Amino acid sequence: MGKGGEKGGESGEPEPQIRRYTWEEIQKHNLRTDQWLVIERKVYNITKWANRHPGGHRVISHCAGEDATDAFQAFHINPTLVQKFLKPLLIGELAPGEPSQDRDKNSQLVEDFRALRKTAEDMDLFRANPLFFSLYLGHILVMELLAWLMILYFGTGWITTLILSCILTTSQAQAGWLQHDFGHLSVFKKSSWNHIVHKFVIGHLKGASANWWNHRHFQHHAKPNIFKKDPDVNMLHIFVLGDTQPVEYGKKKLKYLPYNHQHEYFFLSDLPTSAHPCVLPNPNHLDHDQTQVLGGKFTFPPPLWSQHWNRERETSGQGSHFALLITQWFLESHWFVWVTQMNHIPMEIDSEKHRDWLSSQLAATCNIEQSFFNDWFTGHLNFQIEHHLFPTMPRHNFWKVKPLVKSLCAKHGVLYEEKPLGKAFVDIVG
């Protein structure tokens, strides 16, 4: 039944007769050189096309041999447009007797979640408020302008440097949350506009690589906290994570660092990446691979500031310049790391378990209690559950969909975890 369908996917020509496949057959095609997946009961051969996937080959390859319907809907703001790329890859469909979900997943849970998504669409929760994002960008630019004016009027004394560090830390952290919005295509209706503004915010306000961010972050969303699929938890040279990895690598006696003290050196884990820019003559010339090697976590000074910093270094010596860089990077690194990890590190981290979309995201994410400060401080990542379920939803609508998500979780007995901000930070160390 199975083999003849491959020809249609490779040639791009429709088969004269629809091929029918079982899940047993489809699940065999999950190798790097042989990849099939299912979207809305249609079977696609993505083997040759994966390398041309705009989101990167890894994120789509992680779904090989599985039902990728919910992941497909989660990542694409215009699924109808994307269908034209899928049509040449179509090789058949699920056999009539096969369930829509693979690996004995709870079909009622999957159907209820898809109904919830349809309800969110009908409520216009995927439509962004232009005023929200305009004001958000405005308050970042105001802080950047204020920093420039302080330099102009007060020079580079130590007091000015410390105040500047706090202002720039805040503006850079908030720019990090804003680039995240555009990177997820959650602001404009057209993907191209989101990509353009994303490159401006992450490139010119952050001094980081949009390609690097896309390459890693979409993998994280597709398979959060899954070893070998989520790059955010593949950190063996620094940390062992979850319940099974410490045991597994303890038996193998693999040891790069004293992991029994990792809860202590976690506080210093971002200092090496903060030091790299001080010895780089021009961070704007770094390519994608170099950004990856150095960690990529908003490591380099924003291009809008690099010319000023070079000039100040020549005229006023190294002291205040070095202090400004180190203080800002130290504060921003910890702001970024603690906020992003409070939702994931305390949750389940393990190997692939082939859960449905809702269950996989809830197992790996938790929420932080809502308040005006928490919303602003975390860039609405305190609604991590809703963000992971609907990554293209504008963040100002998370609070509206939250009751629907909690109700669905309660109906199916899926744990919906929410905690205070302070406890979330403590749980990281725990």
Automatic annotation (TrEMBL):
GO biological-process terms attached to the record: unsaturated fatty acid biosynthetic process
Subcellular location: Membrane
Domain Cytochrome b5 heme-binding, residue spans: 18-95
Pfam families in UniProt: Cyt-b5 (PF00173), FA_desaturase (PF00487)
Residues spanning the signal sequence: none
Transmembrane segments: 131-155
PANTHER family the record matches: ACYL-COA 6-DESATURASE (PTHR19353:SF12), FATTY ACID DESATURASE 2 (PTHR19353)
Name of this chain's protein: FADS2 desaturase
